[in-house]
Each structure stands twice: as C-alpha cells, then as structure tokens.
Amino acid sequence: MNLLNLELSKQLPPEEVIFQMALTAGIMQSLVITAKLGIADLLKDGPKHCDELAQATDTHSHSLYRFLRALASVGVFAETEPKCFELTPLAACLQDKESHSIRHFILFLERTYGCWGDAIETLRTGKNAHERIYGMSMFQYLDQNQDSAFSKIYDRGMAEVSLIQDAAIISAYDFSALEKLVDVGGGTGNLLAAILQRYPSLKGVLFDRPRAAEKAKVLFEEKGLTNRCEAVGGDFFKSQIPSGGDAYLLKYVLHTWDDQNVVKVLKSCHQAMAGKGRLLVIERVITEDTFWMPKFADLNLLMLLSAAVRTEKEFRSLFEAAGFELTRVIPAGSIASILEGKII
To answer: What is the CATH number of domain 139-343?
Structure first.
C-alpha cells in the first residue's frame, strides 16, 4: 500500500489504515539516519552488500539490512540481490553532492522531530517546543552558534529546498518590467542570482542576516553578478531593509514567524518601499484542495517556531495589517504560490 494514497486507503478497514499511518513516523527518522550515515554516497558507484555497508558505517550488518529493506519498500534504495542494495531516484536525493540533493534539509528535520516529543505542551499553550527544550528560539540559537554543525546544516538545507522551487518561480512571474529587485531574507542568494541571470538588465539587492549576506556575496562573485547585485547584512525587524527597489521579494520568510512578527516584517518592507513598488511573497498557501504535505509542514512549523503555513484569507489579513492589498495569487509549481501585493 502507498501510505500517501488516501484513495487507495479507502479500500482497507479503518483500523488497518490507522495502524499503517502510525508506523510512518519511522520513515522520517529513517531518512535522517540514512543521511547521517551517508549510505547514499556509499552507493554512488553501484550496488553494495550489507556487510560492506555495515563496515563502512560502523553498524550491525543484519540490523542494517532490515533498515534498508524497510526503506526499499517505500522506494528509497532497491534490493538487487539478497542483501545487496543500490540507489533509486529517491535515494539519490540523499547524496551529499547530487544536484537534486536535500540531504542537509533531511538532517535539519532531526531537530524538528525532537520538538514533536513535546507536542502536547505545544497544543496546550500554542508555544513552540524549541524554546522549551533549548531555552531560546531557533533563530536565536543560530545567531549564537554561527559556527556550529547545526548552523551549517540549516544553511545548506534551506539552500537545497530553495533550489527545488526556483525554476518554477522564475517561470511563473514576469520580472521584465522591474529595474531593481530587493530580495528580503534571501539567504545565500540562489534565487536572486537565477532571476538576474534570466533578466540581464535587472539589478538586485539581497538583504539577510550578516552571516547569510556574506555567503551570498561569494555566490554573486562566482556567478559574475557583482556589477548588478549587492548583498547587505541587517535585521528586517529593525527597518534596515534597503530602499529604492521596484519590488520586494520574500521567499519562504513569512512562514517562519508568527502573525505579529510577520506584520513587523511587512511593515519594514512598506517603509523601505516609500509608497511605491510591488510586494512579492512566495509561500505555500493552504486551500480546500491542498493535499496532506503542506498541512503537516504547518504542524512542523508550529512545533519548531510557533509559525504557520497560511491560507489566502490569512495572508490577505496580514497584508492589510501592514498597509498592503493582496492583488494576485499566482501558482508557481506544485507547492509554492506568488502572492503579489501593492501599497494601499
């Protein structure tokens, strides 16, 4: 049974469906362990026997076999001969340097499922588990531990996820009428660089925490964009966003904050825009037809950040609270949407 196929599940007794759903938590944990052990990289040159994989990963061979057999049952790895496994397209995404890798995002999820262990308290209070477990918000932790392994995992993981949607976003929106695009919270600059490469006359500014901005500068230099693009470090809660842009872009920024902080970020953009320009917010938007994944991503954000994946109505309300009118919602690929706004 495909555990993600709800239509197929209707053919089974409800108690069997619930029983199988209850076991799916092990899939996420198994993916994290696979990423930590680097198993996909060990198979890059072809199939290997469990004995060889166990020796390379310092694990127990038969236990590792059972582990890989389970992952193979959902399409991650394939058993080619007894106890021999090879990569599948899904497993290839767990390789460290594969172009479609999301290995570091998977590693980041380890902290997320750690927060799920305190989920009942989050449901009682509405407050995230990260602050209870670590004594500070995740972003405070990142700022105070900039050279930590988790900080590096976070940066690479967010960049990996960003790349998944970039092509669809660029295809969905026409940036040709713009002269200057300001990417607020643009991370290490992958999306802005891709947009500038598509539109040679466009200029860009990336604005993010100083640590991210410094990495973006390196990328812009590698892409030959330093004459058209700059990276500025700062804090968008303190109204430091650079002015003068024709459009202000926020990709996957707002879903990491609660409503109060979202309004603060949008008001900072409003101030920087000085009465003109477009607001472009790229986010998942929950609708009546939205499938399961964004809704469970919403729960992950609740547990980790007290944040949310929102509906169009919720975005419209947040826009208005910050002085914007939501004018269009443009689909961009299978997951994201571009919410276009203008100053009221």
So the answer is: 3.40.50.150
